[in-house]
Design goal:
With 711 residues, the chain is mainly beta. It is built from 3 helices and 36 strands. 48% of the residues are buried.
């Protein structure tokens, strides 16, 4: 507790730690002007294209898009990863995107958060060691504002709390697509904080198999395997993995008295162990070269302990999670005289969580709650490529059931449903012999909630209410390639985020709900460049450089405010903004060396009406971030050194509790010998004891060894 503001809160998703305070906002007058400008720009582009008619002499037909090997990727995914209708074509998209390939993390003892945190504009907050609760924010957003998809299936559910990245197994992942700011309609919903799409492995021609095993500090264990076979019309793929750790690293326990070092002592972390497993299974059949049907099932299970803030050895609090996603899809391309390409899919996801704090070691009192979420629906995407443009249309419909049950009292409270309909229309227009790309798009979202607000735990009854809202959100993107070494981009988009059930109900840990919450409404703008040269000098193989300015504002931002008892309640606030600059470069030199770096500066400021917080930095967001990687390759040997730095973070909304700067050095060496890959890693070599969440330290120095076999 700091001046009445709790530093850390506990929730049924593990650790739900402070980041209280507004995130994005804008005055109603400013927002109205911005909305009118968006609609005006959108209408002008569409009207101009309609009047002009765009004859073939103006709009070329051969799209020779520039491919630049940089942090911001403008290249289509590798063909071996099987580009399919519904995927985002990076050659055409105007937004700022990073694509992380499997080769960048394969064979390492990492989780998804560790992989993502090396990207510009990305911030990962983790509550402990490997496998612990971790969330992602982009460009100063909250974790709730970032949408995470797996093969186009949304992982954010109505329950809220953001997506726990530790519950996504890297062994199943082929690539990670990071969309900052504007996002294409291919995903359906858009988001104020951007989109992350996890693309799992896809079957390739022939027979392929691999296996990995690893071991390291804190009794960390890893096993994974993969096999796929594609011949003729049939193909199948199976990937499975296990990851576990005791996470019993040493930590300095200040016993809740940071001003009194006399009672500080070093001890092992208690009750932070975890074990998780995953299985990915895919079966596909190609009717023709243009028609394919596939069924995918992804299963994940995890058991973990949740440590208390004071590291009590008596703590036995646990969280068990199980998730299963099944998808059936049909791709049919080159249909009719207009050569339509289509993707139709239906999906069903099931998530089970059991939060057991029966002894009251972590939260406010005793709690043992089971949460079950069922989500099912379908998506249809169609695109029609013409000589000078490509028109895409998407419809996405999903129904979600949220069923929490208090097992200590045998009561079902807050049992609710949510129905979401999203429709999107997007036109990708190629001008000036394909050097200019303009993408106007429009989204329509309809959301209906049937809520059963159970407030029994707070002394009330059960209320049944319903909410029904719809929104229309435009966006516009422009990309200009005046010369072969330069790409210029700019984007403007409007987004909406509806309140989660957690924010409406407050049914976890230290929080109470607010059924009167309104949806957040935000506007994103960015503009930047990307330059790249190949062989500018004999010793320099390739160099690339990029930079982006971004700006975000929102109305009715949802944040938590606290009373004198430290109880939080979700409220709508206004007037906060985020301005920032991000950039990066990559240099390949002297045949064997590569240097990559990314830099981010951002200014997330609370401009709300609460005087104590006005003008303060939004909690939990860094001011500056830097990441760098130097690697050397010779034959089958690779040696690398990584550095990550974050500064300017406050734990609280009043900016009274600053976090220490984060400085992390990692290093490793790998050796590819025939079909075997041997890897040795050292993490946090300087033993930096930083805390993403106050009171929840990260591990110190650690070492891991992994051996893999490829067939």
């Amino acid at each position: 507790m700091e001046n009445g503001i709790p530093v850390s809160e506990i929730s049924d998703t593990g650790i739900f730690l402070a980041s209280a305070g507004p995130v994005l906002a804008g005055t109603p007058t400013e927002m109205t002007i911005m909305k009118n400008r968006i609609f005006f720009y959108f209408a002008v582009v569409v009207l101009a294209l309609t009047i002009e008619g765009l004859p073939p002499s103006i709009a070329g037909t051969d799209k020779d898009a520039v491919t630049l090997d940089t942090v911001i990727v403008t290249a289509r995914q590798d063909e071996e990863e099987r580009f399919e209708t519904g995927d985002v074509d990076m050659e055409e998209f105007t937004g700022f995107v990073s694509v992380i390939k499997r080769q960048d993390f394969e064979g390492k003892m990492e989780d998804l958060g560790e992989v993502l945190q090396k990207e510009a504009g990305i911030q990962i907050r983790q509550s402990g060691g490997l496998g612990s609760f971790s969330t992602v924010s982009m460009r100063g957003s909250s974790s709730e504002q970032v949408l995470v998809y797996m093969d186009g299936v949304l992982l954010n559910d109505a329950a809220g709390g953001g997506v726990d990245l530790s519950n996504i197994a890297l062994s199943d992942v082929a690539a990670i697509e990071v969309f900052r700011g504007v996002s294409p309609i291919n995903f359906g919903k858009g988001s104020i904080g951007g989109v992350i799409n996890i693309r799992t492995l896809r079957a390739r021609e022939g027979f392929k198999a691999s296996a990995d095993a690893g071991y390291g500090s804190f009794n960390t264990r890893k096993l994974s395997g993969f096999v796929n076979h594609k011949t003729g019309k049939w193909d199948y793929l199976i990937s499975a993995g296990y990851l576990g750790s005791d996470n019993d690293f040493e930590m300095l326990n200040d016993n809740g008295t940071p001003q009194n070092p006399a009672d500080d002592k070093w001890e092992k972390r208690n009750n932070a162990q975890f074990n998780q497993g995953n299985i990915l299974a895919k079966l596909g059949y190609d009717f023709t070269d243009d028609t394919r049907v596939a069924v995918v099932n992804q299963w994940f299970s995890k058991d973990q302990g949740l440590p208390s803030w004071n590291n009590s050895p008596q703590t036995e609090t646990s969280l068990d999670t199980e998730r299963n996603i099944t998808t059936l899809s049909l791709i049919s391309d080159d249909i009719g005289p207009l050569h339509f390409n289509t993707r139709t899919s239906v999906d069903y996801s099931y998530k089970y969580e059991m939060y057991d704090d029966s002894q009251g070691h972590v939260g406010l009192g005793r709690q043992k709650t089971r949460y079950i979420t069922n989500r099912y629906g379908g998506k249809f995407y169609v695109e029609s490529p013409f000589s000078w443009n490509t028109v895409g249309f998407l419809v996405d419909m999903h129904h979600e059931d949220y069923e929490p049950e208090d097992l200590l009292t045998n009561r079902e409270t807050n049992k609710s449903t949510r129905d979401i309909l999203t429709a999107g229309l997007q036109d990708t227009i190629f001008l000036l012999e394909d050097t200019l790309t303009v993408i106007p798009a429009l989204r329509y979202t309809n959301i209906k909630d049937d809520l059963r607000s159970g407030t029994d735990a707070w002394g009330g009854g059960v209320n049944a209410t319903s909410r029904h809202d719809d929104y229309v959100n435009p966006q516009l993107g422009v990309k200009y390639n005046p010369v072969d070494w330069l790409v210029l981009k700019t984007n403007l988009a409007q987004y909406v985020r509806e309140p989660s059930f957690f924010e409406l109900f407050g049914d976890r840990g230290f929080f109470i709900g607010n059924p009167d919450l309104k949806a957040e409404k935000g506007i994103n703008f960015d503009a930047g460049f990307n330059v790249g040269w190949s062989k500018p000098f004999s010793w320099l193989e390739r160099i690339s450089l990029n930079g982006t300015y971004f700006h975000t504002k929102a109305d009715d931002l949802i944040t938590f405010v606290y009373d004198s008892r430290g109880i939080g309640r979700a409220e709508n606030i206004s007037e906060a903004r985020i301005d920032g600059v991000e950039g990066g470069f990559q240099v390949d030199f002297l045949k064997f060396f590569r240097l990559t770096a990314s830099l981010t500066w951002q200014d997330p400021v609370n401009e709300g009406q609460v005087r104590a917080f006005h003008g303060k930095r939004l909690p939990g967001r860094y001011k500056t971030s830097a990441a760098g990687n130097l690697e050397a390759r010779y034959g089958g040997v690779k040696v690398y050194l990584e550095y990550l730095r974050e500064t300017g973070i406050y734990y609280d909304s009043a900016n009274l509790l600053p976090a220490d700067d984060k400085n992390v050095f990692n290093a490793g060496i790998s050796w590819l010998y025939r079909s075997f890959l041997f890897s040795l890693e050292g993490k946090n070599l300087t033993n930096d004891r930083y805390e993403d969440f106050n009171g929840y330290p990260m591990p110190g120095r650690a070492f891991y060894f992994t051996v893999g076999y490829r067939y």
